[in-house]
Amino acid sequence: MNLHNADIEISAVDKKQYPKKGYMEFAFAGRSNVGKSSMINKLLNRKSLARVSGTPGKTITINFYNIDDTIYLVDLPGYGYAKRPKSDVEKWGKMMEDYLSNRKELVQTILLVDSRHKPTKDDITMADWIRHYHERLIVVATKTDKLKKSEIEGNLELIWETLQMGEDDILVPFNTKDDEGKYTVWDMIEMMRAGQMSEE
């Protein structure tokens, strides 16, 4: 895949707007401000393709990034402490559940959690959703550059234990200051893509 040939194709607020090209989709879920947009920019070697915001809950659409007319990276709306009306939160929940359960192009949902903190109840709920709809739980622990080196191992263990991760699950440390985690995420996507193609 040519990562230089990447662009946002649609910011969908309704499933009728989802792309219809049939490309495999790899979605990123996480609480508001966990760093999904920053991670997408890092994966694609771009500074501002995905809009980064310091305001929780900025992303209220499902954003589909077309990667070289081959796959989509999908940025799901953040959950958690976003300052939004209850009706918006309920709409978000219905949209997420429908996407996760019914989107046939979705190969894997990857959960992002902040490496500095113990996973929240919402993180645990999302992890359970992912386990229900996928064979394994893949978690990316963001912002490891904001931890002391002596803290990283213990924090990763806390994430593993809190989310009750098992031997088939994968936990990837990630930060945007260097390339930690970047190539691991791409390797996983390529492996899942190849596995999906071999099944078809």
With strands numbered from the N-terminus, the spatial order across the biggest sheet is: 1-3-4-2-5-6-7
Number of domains: 1
Could you state the oligomeric state of the chains shown?
single chain
Give the beta-strand count: 7
Helix content: 25-40%
Strand-pairing-aware structural class: alpha/beta
On the 0-100 scale, what is the average pLDDT? 89
Largest sheet: 7 strands, mixed
Shape descriptor reads: globular
Residue stretches low in confidence (pLDDT < 50, at least 5 long) are none
Which percent range describes the beta-strand content?
15-25%
Overall CATH class: Alpha Beta
Distance linking N and C termini: 20 Å
| CATH topology (fold) name | Rossmann fold
Q: Report the order of strands and helices.
A: EEHEEHEHEHEH
CATH superfamily: P-loop containing nucleotide triphosphate hydrolases
Radius of gyration of CA atoms, rounded to a whole number: 16 Å
What's the helix count? 5
Level-2 CATH architecture = 3-Layer(aba) Sandwich
Features of this protein?
seven-stranded mixed sheet, 35% helix, Rossmann fold, 200 residues, 7 strands, alpha/beta, single chain
